Each structure stands twice: as structure tokens, then as C-alpha cells.
Amino acid sequence: MSTCIAYATKYGFTKTCAEILAKKLDGETDIYDLSNLQPDLSKYDKVIIGGSIYAGKIRKPAMKFCTNHMDTIKNKKLGLFICGMSDGEDAKKQLESSFPKELLSVAVAKESFGGDCNFDKMNFIERFIMKKITGSGQNQVRISEDNIKRFAGRMKDA
Length: 158
Known about the structure:
- The structure is a single chain.
- This protein is of the alpha/beta class.
- It is 41% helix and 27% strand.
- The protein contains seven helices and eight strands.
- The strands form two sheets. Strands 1, 2, 3, 4, 5 and 6 form a six-stranded mixed sheet that branches.
- Strand 3 and strand 4 form a beta hairpin.
- Helix 1 crosses helix 7.
- 34% of the residues are buried.
């Protein structure tokens, strides 16, 4: 079984999560940054799509990829993930609002992998907004290895 992990990231955290996930999957796995490359989905049995969340929305390259390849993607064994600072019910709501309902309904795995709030990489406006949201000016990294492991298990079982 071959797997395609296609993601969109702003600062690199989603790429890190995609790489961790790839190591937990069986078979050949290729990783694509949707800002730079578009995979040929005909080569893959399984497709995983992920993206970082900013201002409550998934990165545009991930959404555009879903929209442009909807018919192909929904006929694959599909996994969907997000990366963001929200967790629990907030993360679930963000995930469900980030992908088309047609894909959410057929996905065998859906998860939030955590987030990275690195103020050193942000511009002034982003820092200001994130300080308001988080209530802190401190860098925060929250990666959910358990969620990645559970997601990988669901993809293996699919």
C-alpha cells in the first residue's frame, strides 16, 4: 500500500507532524508540501491531507487541493488532520470546519496533532493577535504523539 501525505504549513510544525506520522505508517509513504508540489494521486491507495490553522481556517493550499481533487480524494482511503493550538472540542470544531463535508464523511481518520506558537517566527501583527488569544507572549509547543499514533493506527487498519 502506498500513502500520500499532502500538507500545507506556514512555519513548519505541520511538516514536522507529517514526518512523524510517515514513520508510523506501513508501506511506501511520500510527503508533499502543497505550497510547492502537487502529488499525482493515481499512484496512491491512501491519501492524508493536513494543514495548520490560522484565524480558525486551514491554510489555503490544503483547501484548494481538497477542492481541486475532490472526486479522486473521496475514492481513496482518506485521513484528515489539522495542527493548531486548540484542543478538545475546539480542535474538533476546527477540524470539521476546515475540510469539505464530502471528505469528512468518508475519512477513516481525523485528528488534531497539536500546535506550535513560536513568537520568534511571527510578524508584529501575528504576535499581537496570538498574545491576545493565548494570554501569553511565551513560545508554546504542544505535539500530541497519542493523536498521531491513533491516526496512524486507523490508517493502517483501513
